[in-house]
Amino acid sequence: MQESTNTPNQRLIVRIGQSTLALLIYDGHQVCQYEETEMRSGVSTAANLREWLKSQPLLAGTYSSVSILLHTPTLLVPTDEFDSSDAESLYKYTFSHHDHDEVRHLVLPQHHAVVVFGIEKDLLTVVTDHFADAQWQPVCLSVWQRFGKRGQQPGREHQRLHVYFHDGHADVFSFNGSHFKFCNSFLATHAKDALYYVLNAFTQQGMKATRDEVMVVGHVANKKWLVQQLETYVGRVSVPELPATQPDTSQWPTMPADLVFSLSQ
Question: What is the pTM of this model?
Fold first, then answer.
């Protein structure tokens, strides 16, 4: 990989996952560079990131700004109920072991909601040391935005439960028009557990097997088996391909869907 100097049209995205790091450079038309790596076990995420960024020739002082996609717990609050002064205490009450995180929020006007999320302060330090400007967002944001647009289509009679598999987790969500109807996340390292939780969410929302749909996106172990099992309980199960309007990412089959979708934000 050769050292490169960015142009004004190039965009740098770094994804910090549960156990992986990824770096992508996009010029508005195509992916120029993509690198991904497994984190070293027994070493903190911040230490892994610092070491990895220093080892990247592409980042040899050529980029001042970066978009960060972070795997972190998220809390959705309706816009009319959100109070920024309460966001930190509410987040840390909801999620344990995040007492030392810096809590931030992003307004999602198209969904009439605010997403609250935490960033480890050591991670903030590492990123600040490398970049003058960083925009942070939870990994699932681009996925919500992509499929939230579909949720706004008029005239659709059936409901859809979206399941996004990533980082050993599943984000399960649905919309009522443009509003979030349901949103939750759970560990999904085992396909049988994932099947149970997805069907439970489907049932809890009053969805009907003969009418409604489960859409499965992302990477999960035994995905083919999982889809086959879902099809025995739900009449409509879809596994969509990435749309043709996206830049070609076929040479990187393990690239997370949230990273692909973020290119069109």
Answer: 0.91
